[in-house]
Design a protein that fits this description.
Elements (H helix, E strand, L loop, with lengths): L1 H7 L14 H15 L1 E5 L11 E5 L24 H7 L3 E2 L1 H16 L21 H10 L2 E7 L10 H5 L3 H16 L3 E7 L15 E4 L7 H10 L28 E2 L15 E2 L10 H6 L17 E3 L3 E2 L7 E10 L8 E7 L11 E7 L8 E9 H4 L1 E3 L4 E4 L2 E8 L5 E9 L3 E5 L26
Parallel strand pairs: 2-3, 2-4, 4-5, 5-6
Antiparallel strand pairs: 1-6, 7-8, 9-11, 10-11, 11-14, 12-13, 12-17, 15-16, 16-19, 17-18
Helix pairs in contact: 2-8, 3-8, 5-7
Length: about 450
C-alpha cells in the first residue's frame, strides 16, 4: 500500500514544484472547505441566517482570537488567521465597538502574561473567559440586533483532554452564556453560539439558552470568513457530525477505562512526546462510537451524521438492484430540495445485518454522498454500491471476514437515527469474504462488550 502511494505522488511523477504557491487561490479553497465542514446543530425560530447589515455583539475570547488548528500535526503554519469578529466585519455586519474594544484590551493584557517558550506539542495557551459587566451587557443588548458567543477549545498531540472545563464548560463560560442569553432575550433578540473546538463538548446542559449553535471546529486561517459565510447564509451549512455528541460523559462507553492505569514503577510525570507507560483496555469491542449509542439505545445530544440546513429535503423510494445478494448490488434513490433555499444534503446509507453467530451493531455506515447544490425543487439521483465486504464481520476463531446468511436491511437517511427510506435483501448462504492471519493477538483476554449486556457506566461523572 505504501509503495502504491509513492507511485502516485507528484514527486515520483516528476511534477515541478514552486516556491511561489497560489496563496490566494489556496485561501479560497481553505475558506470553502471550512464552511462546508461546519455543522448547524440548532436553529430555533430561524435564528439563522442573519439578515444583511445586522448589528452584532461578539462575545467570548475566541471571537477575537480564533483557534485555527490543534497542536502538533493538528496545525499548520499560517500566513494569517481571520478571527470571527473580523469575518463578520468583512461580511458587512456592524460588530459592537465597545464590546470589541473591551475584549481587545483584555486579550492584550492576558497574552502579555503568557510564557514566550512553547514546544511543538504544547497545547495552545488557554486564556480564561473575560468577565462581562452588567453595564456592558445592557449596552450591547440595547445597541446590537443579535449576540454571537464563541466557545473555544485547543487539543491535539501531546496531551489528553480533561472532563471538567474542557469537555464541559468552565464556570466562567456558563456564566457568560447565561448572562448574554438573559440580556438579549429580555430585549426579544437572539443569541447564536459558535463552537470553535477540535472535538466533542458537552452541549445538553446549556443548548436551550441558545437560539442557534454552529459547530465551526478549528477552521483554519480563513475560519472567521468561513463562519461569517455560514451565519450570513452565503454558504448553506451542509456538514454532518462524524462523531456522537453524548448527553454526558457518563454515557461514553470507554469513559470508565480512559485514560488507563499507569504501569508500576514508571515516572508519574512522563513527557509530552511519549506520555507515561500505562495500559488501557478498550472493552467496547465492536461498539465504537455510534455503533454503541444506537445498539444500546443510549440517547445522544446529537447523533452521528446529524446536521441541519437552511433547506429541507425529500427522499424518494429506495430501490435495490436485486432482492438477492450475489457478488454485489446497488441502492438508488432520488433526493429533492423541498424548500425555497438552495442547499446540499449529505445522504447516508446504513446496513443492518441479520442476527447470527457474529456480534453485530444495530447498523453500520456503508456509504455517504453530498449532493450538488440543489436549487429549490431540483432533484438528484444517488447510487450506492454494496459489496460482500460491506456485509462481512470479523470472525476471530477463524481469522476471517464472514458475511452471514439472512435478511439485510438497507437504511438511508439524514443521520444514523433520521432514517428516511429502507429496503431489504437476502443473502442465501454465508460467504467467507477474506481470510486473515492471527497477528497481534492480545496477551491477556479482553472481556469485550456484547449486545444484550448491561451498558457500561462511566466512573467519570
Amino acid at each position: 500500500r505504501v509503495l502504491r502511494m509513492v507511485l502516485q505522488s507528484p514527486t515520483f511523477k516528476g511534477d515541478k514544484y514552486t516556491s511561489q504557491p497560489a496563496l490566494k487561490a489556496n485561501a479560497t479553497v481553505a475558506r470553502q472547505a471550512a464552511a462546508e465542514g461546519m455543522v448547524l446543530l440548532r436553529n430555533q425560530g430561524a435564528a439563522l441566517p442573519l439578515a444583511a447589515g445586522k448589528r452584532v455583539a461578539a462575545f467570548g475570547v475566541t471571537s477575537y482570537s480564533l483557534i485555527a488548528g490543534g497542536t502538533g500535526s493538528g496545525d499548520v503554519n499560517k500566513a494569517y488567521t481571520i478571527a470571527i469578529a473580523q469575518g463578520l466585519t468583512n461580511a458587512g455586519y456592524a460588530v459592537d465597538a465597545p464590546v470589541s474594544q473591551a475584549y481587545s484590551q483584555y486579550l492584550k493584557a492576558e497574552k502579555a502574561k503568557l510564557s514566550k517558550k512553547r514546544n511543538l506539542l504544547d497545547p495552545a495557551p488557554v486564556i480564561a473567559e473575560m468577565p462581562v459587566t452588567a453595564a456592558q451587557l445592557a449596552s450591547a443588548a440595547q445597541a446590537a440586533d443579535v449576540a454571537v458567543v464563541t466557545i473555544g477549545r485547543s487539543a491535539g498531540e501531546g496531551g489528553d483532554r480533561k472532563v471538567p472545563g474542557d469537555f464541559t464548560l468552565t464556570a466562567a463560560e456558563q456564566t457568560l452564556l447565561k448572562q448574554v442569553s438573559a440580556a438579549f432575550h429580555a430585549k426579544g433578540k437572539k443569541m447564536v453560539v459558535v463552537l470553535n473546538v477540535g472535538g466533542v463538548t458537552e452541549v445538553a446542559s446549556w443548548r436551550d439558552q441558545a437560539d442557534a449553535i454552529v459547530l465551526a471546529w478549528q477552521p483554519g486561517q480563513e475560519g472567521g470568513n468561513a463562519v461569517a459565510d455560514v451565519l450570513s447564509g452565503k454558504v448553506n451549512p451542509s456538514g454532518k457530525l462524524a462523531t456522537t455528541f453524548p448527553m454526558s460523559y457518563a454515557d461514553v462507553p470507554y469513559g470508565q477505562n480512559f485514560p488507563g492505569k499507569v504501569l508500576p514503577g514508571n515516572d508519574a510525570k512522563g513527557n509530552s512526546f511519549v506520555g507515561v507507560p500505562s495500559v488501557n483496555t478498550y472493552e467496547e469491542g465492536i461498539y465504537v462510537g455510534y455503533r454503541y449509542y444506537n445498539t444500546f439505545q443510549v440517547k445522544p445530544a446529537y447523533e452521528f451524521g446529524y446536521g441541519l440546513s437552511y433547506s429541507t429535503f425529500g427522499y424518494g423510494p429506495l430501490k435495490l438492484s436485486s432482492s438477492t445478494f450475489g457478488k454485489g448490488l446497488t441502492a438508488t434513490l432520488t433526493v429533492t430540495n423541498t424548500s425555497q433555499v438552495a442547499g446540499k444534503e449529505v445522504v447516508q446509507l446504513y446496513l443492518s445485518a441479520p442476527t447470527g453467530a457474529l456480534d453485530k451493531p444495530a447498523s453500520e455506515l456503508k456509504g455517504f454522498v453530498k449532493t450538488n447544490l440543489l436549487a429549490p425543487g431540483q432533484s438528484q439521483t444517488l447510487t450506492f454500491p454494496l459489496t460482500a465486504m460491506d456485509l462481512a464481520s470479523f470472525h476471530t476463531p477463524t481469522s476471517s471476514w464472514v458475511a452471514e446468511a439472512g435478511t439485510y436491511t438497507v437504511r438511508v437517511g439524514a443521520s444514523s437515527l433520521a432514517v428516511k427510506q429502507q429496503a431489504t435483501f437476502q443473502l442465501p448462504t454465508a460467504q467467507v469474504v477474506l481470510k486473515s492471519r492471527p497477528l497481534l493477538v492480545p496477551q491477556q483476554p479482553v472481556a469485550d462488550l456484547k449486545a444484550g449486556q448491561p451498558r457500561p457506566t462511566s466512573a467519570k461523572k
